[in-house]
């Protein structure tokens, strides 16, 4: 089986440069952060998931059974520390017995020892960088989707607004399930669209995309159950809409995907049935509707360029027929579905999950506007919006070192 050829041209290089700048912003913020109680919680309980069961009888970790909270952020935060600990113990075994730091070579350790280890220089990068990489992964996916749908100009507008969005950076530099849910929901929706397109082609292309869809659904559910449920319902709608003559396969795909996703979530609980049952009884997916968070996002000055881009895109979408097609309507529908959600059982931020779809919508509509006779006007407007977003972001970076 031949591997596909990877062509790295000028567009890919520019996109990589933007993502590299995004990485630099995040590193700058992390370097100035102070470890918080939430960091210790994610690190300690994440390590417990990877290394040993909870010392408290009847509980999954010392954080409890994660009633309503996803396991993925804990595992993402804890994995680098567990690997680091394994390397330290392995190196320790090379020392003489009287010089060893870990008695008996144990991977365990008290809470005090864990707090001492996590306070070492560089450990906060081990714990925070995985979330930055998920944000970079999402940025790459955003650019790829927009470029496939709208071309280079729309893709660079969306990616530029993403890489210089202080809100994205703020959630990318600390352990949390929100950035993972945002990554998962966006990938889940477009993976489902990819499955629908694959159904129109040869069967050999079905399994890889269905497998990717199952993985996206399972990981999203491990991060936040509500995000997975919203993505699953949206995926079902897009599959039935796009599958056309292959709609008879859609229900089978959805059933097997749901079962596969449950298996992934069960695995994230180390195949322990008692804590896994809290997925169904913890209330993590309970929600209602509120526009307060949306009003707060658009009223915040640093988000003014995104607000302007959204407003212009909305006017063009409603007023120009060429802007109203599936590529632009899909992210708009997701924005409308997610932006107004508000969790009631736990503190969560569904409005954040809608941001990649919002930027996709803005990039798509502006790409259409750039193909009209008013190209120069909209090109100038795009440049002004991007430059303003860059200035606002760089000016805000010092305040982002505060933990969320």
UniProtKB/TrEMBL annotation:
The reply on keyword Protease is no
What residue intervals traverse the membrane? 125-145, 154-173, 179-199, 211-243, 249-266, 297-318, 325-344, 350-370, 377-397
Q: Which UniProt keywords apply?
A: Membrane, Transmembrane, Transmembrane helix
Presence of the UniProt keyword Transmembrane helix in the record: yes
Q: Which domain of life is it from?
A: Bacteria
> What is the protein name for this chain?
Glycosyltransferase RgtA/B/C/D-like domain-containing protein
Q: Which organism is it from?
A: Granulicella aggregans
């Amino acid at each position: 089986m031949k591997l596909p050829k990877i062509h790295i041209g000028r567009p890919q290089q520019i996109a990589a440069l933007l993502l590299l700048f995004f990485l630099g912003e995040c590193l700058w913020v992390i370097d100035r952060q102070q470890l918080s109680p939430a960091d210790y919680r994610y690190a300690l309980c994440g390590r417990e998931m990877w290394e040993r069961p909870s010392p408290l009888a009847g509980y999954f970790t010392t954080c409890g059974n994660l009633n309503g909270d996803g396991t993925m952020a804990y595992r993402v935060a804890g994995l680098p520390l567990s690997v680091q600990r394994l390397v330290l113990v392995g190196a320790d075994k090379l020392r003489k017995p009287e010089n060893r730091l870990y008695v008996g070579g144990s991977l365990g350790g008290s809470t005090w020892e864990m707090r001492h280890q996590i306070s070492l220089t560089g450990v906060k990068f081990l714990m925070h960088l995985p979330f930055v990489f998920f944000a970079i992964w999402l940025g790459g996916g955003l650019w790829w989707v927009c470029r496939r749908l709208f071309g280079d100009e729309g893709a660079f507008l969306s990616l530029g607004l993403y890489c210089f969005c202080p809100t994205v950076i703020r959630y990318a530099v600390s352990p949390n399930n929100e950035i993972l849910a945002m990554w998962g929901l966006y990938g889940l929706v477009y993976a489902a669209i990819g499955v629908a397109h694959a159904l129109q082609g040869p069967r050999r292309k079905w399994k890889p995309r269905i497998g990717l869809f199952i993985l996206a659904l399972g990981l999203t559910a491990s991060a936040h159950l509500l995000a997975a449920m919203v993505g699953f319902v949206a995926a079902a709608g897009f599959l039935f809409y796009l599958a056309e003559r292959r709609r008879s396969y859609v229900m089978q795909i959805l059933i097997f995907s749901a079962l596969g996703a449950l298996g992934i979530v069960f695995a994230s609980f180390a195949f322990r049935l008692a804590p896994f049952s809290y997925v169904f009884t913890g209330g993590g997916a309970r929600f209602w509707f509120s526009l307060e968070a949306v009003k707060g996002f658009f009223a915040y000055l640093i988000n003014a360029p995104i607000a302007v881009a959204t407003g212009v895109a909305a006017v063009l979408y409603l007023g120009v027929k060429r802007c109203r097609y599936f590529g632009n309507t899909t992210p708009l529908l997701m924005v409308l579905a997610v932006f107004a959600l508000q969790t009631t059982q736990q503190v969560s931020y569904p409005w954040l999950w809608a941001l990649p779809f919002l930027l996709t919508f803005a990039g798509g509509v502006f790409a259409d506007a750039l193909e009209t006779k008013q190209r120069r006007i909209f090109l100038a407007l795009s440049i002004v919006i991007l430059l303003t977003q860059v200035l606002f972001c760089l000016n805000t970076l010092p305040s982002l070192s505060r933990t969320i």
